[in-house]
Amino acid sequence: MIKTKRVAVAGFGNVGKGVIEVLLQGQIPELKLEKIVVKHPGKIRPFSVDPSLIVTDFSQVIRDPNIDVIVEVMGGIKDAVSLILSALRNGKDIVTANKVVISQHGNEIFSLAIKLGRTVGFRGTFVGCNALIHDLSLSARRIRRMCAILNGTCNYILSHMARSGISFEQALREAQEKGYAEANASEDIDGLDTAHKIQILLGVISNTYNIPPDIPCEGIRDITMQDIQYAKELGYAIKLLGVIERENGSVTVFVRPTLVPHGTMLASIEDANNAIELENDLGVVSGLIAPGAGTYPTTVAIINDLLDIARGATLMMPTLNTPIVLNDIGNIRGRYYLRLTVKDQPRVLAQITRILGDHDISLASVIQKESAPAEAVPVVMTTHEVKERELRTALEKVDQLEVVKAKTKIIPILEGRSQQPAFIR
Ligand SMILES: NC(=O)c1ccc[n+]([C@@H]2O[C@H](COP(=O)([O-])OP(=O)(O)OC[C@H]3O[C@@H](n4cnc5c(N)ncnc54)[C@H](OP(=O)(O)O)[C@@H]3O)[C@@H](O)[C@H]2O)c1
């Protein structure tokens, strides 16, 4: 016999309205909508609901013995954390889409849930790749490398720049006009949204809720149209990647713009889509392309969590408190794209390559285009494999040369096992 779970949805915004719509359709016998929590009860909603469902104080649903699960889709931090912790203490299970809360307060939330024998579903925090992570289930903990595009706004901007030859500023304006980017797009374009998701995924695949509060993170603000064109000439697309790599007990994690080889799944991702590529410890590569946000994609993730709770299925919740020690990114060995801004005069390249040579950095290519006389011109180089710390030390010296007019831009190149993966789903 089906046992129905009684659900309260806290939030009736972009995400909440989708969850409420699906629950009100009444086609899921395991789930029944009991209450909706909002802040402004007088607000006009996209569809009407029975007014007796609406409450404005979330402590009402926390104390209500007729509610089994609370879906937290209010956003923000303070109220959301307070709701989640009090609800767990009052015997409720939780489903949330709040990535900031899970990445920054996962420690208190998961440890309390485990202590009390409760469940926290958080597929909605990494919508774009939740299906693959959950399909892999426990084997996700055998993942060796994860490379993912997790922010639709950044991918829209970068792929639009590549397709239309427009500047970063123009592409950002268009992303804002189309509703992909907020007026304050900093969380997206500075890489923070991707970093929150990568922190959550790191906890999931490492089975720990003791995730590092900060990870190395760089956004896409200073990627120029020239970078995109040079990368294309060299056979790469530029993508904002979140990367987790585990090798011999050490974990390398970062969020950075990265040159991704053409012909791979990640390089082909256009517009606001998300994608994830996973390689396990047996070298098996798999991938998934999916929308990373939006009302219905997030609704599906939340409903799947609710169904798992209703059916007593095990949700992927980190259960240990093991700290993760991150590898210093200076230790990464890889190939790099460098964009130097130099005076347009003879013997400039000789000065730069001498410094690089002194640090055993060998170059795979150098591109300098003829251009109209200008104060400074770009020179693009790609390196052979080098340790990042060594490269940065050399470039500090290069950037001090009188002929170098701006800080050199460094972009890592994704190499190695990234192949066309088998698509799941
Ligand atoms: N939007 C997406 O595509 C997406 C995707 C994945 C995850 N998420 C996450 O999902 C969460 C919700 O996002 P959203 O875009 O749906 O936000 P939103 O459109 O701003 O909606 C927030 C809702 O929560 C209600 N609310 C806020 N604070 C409240 C409080 N203290 N008490 C009661 N109700 C409160 C608001 O009530 P009123 O309507 O009455 O003002 C509103 O209905 C966020 O954590 C976000 O990061 C969003």
Strand residue percentage: 25-35%
Helix percent band = 25-40%
**Strands side by side in the biggest sheet:** 3-2-1-4-5-6
Number of helices: 13
User: Which fold name is given in CATH as the topology of the largest domain?
Assistant: Dihydrodipicolinate Reductase, domain 2
Given helix and strand content, the structural type is alpha/beta
Globally, the shape reads elongated
- What ligands are attached or bound here? NADP nicotinamide-adenine-dinucleotide phosphate
Largest sheet descriptor: 6 strands, parallel
Order of helices and strands: EHEEHEHEHEHEHHHHHEEEEHEHEEEHEE
Which stretches are low in confidence, meaning pLDDT under 50 for 5 or more residues running? 417-425
What is the architecture of the largest domain at the second tier of CATH?
2-Layer Sandwich
Distance between the termini: 30 Å
Would you report the number of β strands? 17
This entry's quaternary arrangement is: single chain
Overall average residue pLDDT: 92
Number of domains: 3
Salient structural properties:
26% strand; Alpha-Beta Plaits; 34% helix; Dihydrodipicolinate Reductase, domain 2; single chain; alpha/beta; 13 helices; disordered C terminus; 6-stranded mixed β-sheet
Describe this structure in words.
- By secondary structure, the chain is α/β, with parallel strands linked by helices.
- It folds into 3 domains: 5-121, 3-Layer(aba) Sandwich (Rossmann fold), CATH 3.40.50; 139-286 and 320-326, Dihydrodipicolinate Reductase, domain 2, CATH 3.30.360; 329-413, ACT domain (Alpha-Beta Plaits), CATH 3.30.70.260.
- Helices cover 34% and strands 26% of the residues.
- The protein has helices at residues 14-24, 58-63, 78-89, 99-116, 130-136, 152-164, 168-177, 186-189, 192-206, 225-234, 295-311, 348-358, 388-399, and strands at 5-10, 31-37, 54-55, 69-72, 93-96, 120-121, 143-149, 236-247, 250-261, 273-280, 285-291, 333-343, 363-367, 376-383, 386-387, 404-413, 422-423.
- Strands 3-2-1-4-5-6 form a 6-stranded parallel β-sheet, with helices on both faces. Strands 9-8-7-10-11-17 form a 6-stranded mixed β-sheet. Strands 12, 13, 14, 15 and 16 form a 5-stranded antiparallel β-sheet that branches.
- Helix 3 runs parallel beside helix 4 (99-116) and helix 12 packs antiparallel against helix 13 (388-399).
- The longest helix is centred in the N-terminal third of the chain and has 18 residues, at 99-116.
- Bound molecules: NADP nicotinamide-adenine-dinucleotide phosphate (NAP).
